[in-house]
Write a structure and sequence with these properties.
By secondary structure, the protein is α/β, with parallel strands linked by helices. It has 14 helices and eight strands.
Length: about 325
Amino acid sequence: MHTYLDFECPIADLEGKIVELRQLAAQDPSMNIDDEAKRLQARADQLLRDTYAKLTPWQKALVARHPARPHFSHYVSGLIDEFTPLAGDRLFGEDRAIVAGLGRFRGQAVAIVGQEKGDDTKSRVAHNFGMAMPEGYRKAQRLFDLADRFGLPVISFADTQGAYPGVGAEERGQAEAIARSTQASLALRVPFVAMIIGEGMSGGALGIAVANRVYMLEHSIYSVISPEGCASILWRSADKAQDAAAALRITAQDLLNLKVIDGIVPEPVGGAHRAPEAAIQAVGDTIDRALHEMHNLSPDEARRQRRDKYLAIGRSLSA
């Protein structure tokens, strides 16, 4: 059954009526519901288009967190052949919030890394809801080193509410691990494409997303802090999360205007969770174009282009 967000209640009502009509028709074959069902479906489709055409930043945050939205594992299944995961950071242990490995993307050997939230209670707990420990970022560094050594393009999928903030993670050097992972990203001498597929929050996302090309799905979000975290600091109340979402400029459209990202991947009407396969293929096509455009970059050019990109962020903004 489809999970509706709060602002989708009018859509849910219409689609619920369509389901009821079809159930009645199934019970009484003499009923002719075709015209009424088509009329209601047309209204529901139009309402869905209108609603998603004018989402607020907070509503986009809710869509980005939708439990049925495709996660990292879905993108790997849909886009990567012969995926071989790496395990462990060779220092402490294995972190399942970050998955990293080697595979083939449309015939090309690549290195892949991303945050996995899980899609049911058991897998969410196993992946710590996509909140990585230091060993996750050190595993990502292993992958970056391998990619650099063997000349493999890197593809990353960011989807996290942030790195895990627990005591154990801090004791094992969470901030240092994220910083080293970011440093390793900047030092790469191969093309690097990052995709924000849901939430790209804080250094937890940035640690695997400092790429030559950064793209966001249409209804994903990307920010230095979550709206709730920002609200709790500025207003000492998470109730102000909607105001924080608007102030933070977390949407793909805002970030493209600010030149923080390089492009937006359109989602199916109603969000990626309504047509996951279409969303996954659209992401694949965008990655394919980006890798093709960077195919002839020399190792030094790939690294210089990435560094110049991040040094330029914010320089053109007015006070």
